[in-house]
Design brief:
This protein is α/β, with parallel strands linked by helices. It has a single domain, classed as Rossmann fold (3-Layer(aba) Sandwich). Strands 3-2-1-4-5 form a 5-stranded parallel sheet. The N terminus is likely disordered.
């Protein structure tokens, strides 16, 4: 299947993109930066991102994410980002996705991208196997 490139005014961002944005990481692409910083764009962050950050911080996989774990709602508000809650339909769609990709956080973002028709800002190659619009 492969990525479908689209432009719009509303976007969903992946967890690593969120963290790179919040902490000024140079790995964030210039295109992603421009999209997130534009006041003309509405940026959504899935509840799954908060779950993923908290889980990986607790497991020691994101040792520098303490500020995000402790202050994520305020950081999102300061960045003018909206939270996309997980619905039952999102959960059922994530579980039903085909393919071998097992990461529950990625599967949720893919399902939300599909159901809400939101392009996803990510450089994660796993998303290319699904019919979602990818921006990087």
């Amino acid at each position: 299947m492969g990525a479908i490139e689209t432009e719009g005014s509303t976007f969903l961002i992946d967890t690593h993109v969120l963290l790179w944005w919040l902490f000024g990481d140079a790995r964030l692409s210039s295109r992603a930066y421009d999209i997130i910083q534009s006041p003309d764009h509405e940026i959504f962050v899935s509840s799954a991102c908060g779950w993923e950050i908290s889980t990986k911080y607790r497991l020691g996989k994101l040792p520098h994410a303490g500020e995000a774990v402790n202050h994520l709602p305020a950081l999102l508000q300061r960045s003018h980002m909206a939270v996309l809650s997980i619905t039952l339909e999102h959960a059922m769609t994530a579980d039903a996705l085909p393919g071998p990709h097992r990461d529950p956080f990625d599967r949720m973002l893919i399902a939300q991208s599909q159901l809400e028709r939101l392009p996803i800002v990510t450089n994660d190659k796993a998303f290319r196997d699904y019919p979602v619009s990818i921006i990087w």
